[in-house]
Structure formats: structure tokens, C-alpha cells
Amino acid sequence: MPTSSSRTTLSILDLVPLSQGMTPTEAIEESVKLAQEADELGYHRLWVAEHHGSEAFMASATSLLLGHFADRTSRIRLGSGGVMLPNHSPLMVAEYYGTLATIHGDRFDLGLGRAPGTDPMTAAALARSSGHLPDFASEVAQLQQYLGNPPTLTGGRGQVRAIPGEGTHVPLWMLGSSTGGAQVAAALGLPFSFASHFAPDQIREALLIYRDRFRADADTAQVDRPTTMAGVNVLVAPTQEEADYLFTTAQLMAIRIRSGQPAPLDPPVENLADVVPSQLLPLAEAHQAVRMVGTPDRIVTQLEEFAAQHELDELIVTTYTYDPALRRRSYRLLAEAWGMTG
Fold first, then answer.
1. CATH numbers and ranges of domains, the chain
2. Of 47, 52, 75, 99, which has the highest C-beta tally within 10 A?
């Protein structure tokens, strides 16, 4: 079996999901267990995606969660997947992630997005700034400046500084679910992660724009060539039948999100059509078109084909199960089949 070193880099996206009957404290502890297992198995990164006002995801304060994970892991890179920058002051983001890097060293990534990560009312309560592309690009550049080299003594007088933060050079990634993020990533010379796990329609166009317009000579450039990652919904189980059954939890979650009926994760069901009105069933397909569900060998083949098709440098996979122990089992089976050495 090929080792992971001969395959595309594999990472994990976590939203700290809450299952029915579970407390928020329990959901966070289950994600700590996942981080520890991912660390031991050999996954490259574990990112947490910012969501607000969600009954299903306990991931509103990503920097606090990542610090919690860092205390309990030793190797795996941790990061935001992402921080929704218009929800925050760039200075405050630099201070938070600069503090994490100061405490734990070079283990953190800053994935940046411009979506609200919530409903319009909650977005307004967050006092969002503009998410328009030029404003967003300017805020990204400002954030990078805060994390860069300290100003000289004369040049530093009167300047706003992120302390701690400056000099940590926390790596930035641009996230996107459309072509907008691709344009910003290309113009700024940043690595680009496409959210194909929930918005697959524009992946080809976004990656093409990113690669065609990439500027390695930008003052903000952090990589010397286009560098890409994409999200995939994955569920691995010993049999296809069990994988399909367990995946109904993720399908019900997608239907709830798309139909405006938020709730904690549902238990799996034998037949979706028995519990979901027929007109809502297509919502799961639209939300999770990029999904790989099945036995370990089958999933490995599908992931390799997807990575080759889009010429990806990295895959970031996300898994939802009602029973968090089965989520960890899915990642363990995938790591073993991928040839990770831990």
C-alpha cells in the first residue's frame, strides 16, 4: 500500500457538531478527542470553521477552541477554516492568533473568509464590516502586516501594532465558495482553499481563475506558486451499508440548513424518504454533491481521483455522525487506508 507521503496531503475540517441530547460542553470535549486522535494518526491539519448562532455547531470562538486543542495535542497544525474576517477587527484577529503562536509556536494557520457564517440578524449583531472584495482584500493585507516584522524604532512611532502578534508570521489561507475568494487569493499571492464540501458548483471556474491570475510577485505573497486545497464530505465505515446508513445524519443536517430548520444532529435513519418530505430531498444532494461514502478502499480511490481531477495539493475532509465515536472511527479507517504512519 502506498504511504501518505506519496499521496495528496490529508487534513480535517471540524465544526464542533452537537448531536441531539448532547450538551455544548460534551460537543467540545468530543472535538478535543478528535483533535487528539487526528494528531496521533498523522493528519496534517485540523481546522475549525467559524459559525454563529447555530444549534448544530459550537464553533463561534475559533481561537479559543484552537488554544484548547493545542493544549491537548503536540504535532498537528491547527487553524481557522476559517475566520470570517468581516466579523472582526483585523487587529484583534492578529492579537488572538499571534497570542496562540506566541504560546504554542508555529502550529497555526489563519484561513480567512468573507461570508457571515450565520443568519442576517446575527450577522448584524456582530457589527460586520463590508464583505465587498476590495474592502476584504484590504483587510487581509492589513492583517498580514500586523503579523509581519515589527516596525523599526523610528517607523514604529504612532503606528498600530499587534502585540503579541507581530513577527509571528502566522500563515494565511484564503477561503472561498465562489470565484470571489479565488480572485483575492490570486491577487494577494496566497494559498486558496475551496469550500466544495458545501458549495461545489464553481470549483472548476474558481480554481482556473486562481491559477491564471496568481501573482507570486505581490507584496503579500506567501507562496511562490498556486497552492490549492478543497473540502470533501467523507464517511468511512467497514461496510457500504453501514456507511450509507450513518451518512443520513449528514443528509438530514444539510436539509435542515437549506430549509431553515436548524437543530442538533439527528440520529441516522433507514430511509430518508420516510422522515423527509419529497420536495426537500434534493436539498441534501445540492449541499453535499462532493461526498464520498463507503468502505476505506473505495473512499481512498475516490479521493485520489478527485485530487487528480482538480490538481489539488491538499484535501480537507469533514465527517458528521450522530455518535461521535463513529466519527473518530471514520477518520481512523481513512488514515489507515491512506497509509498514514502517525
1. 4-338 (3.20.20.30)
2. 47
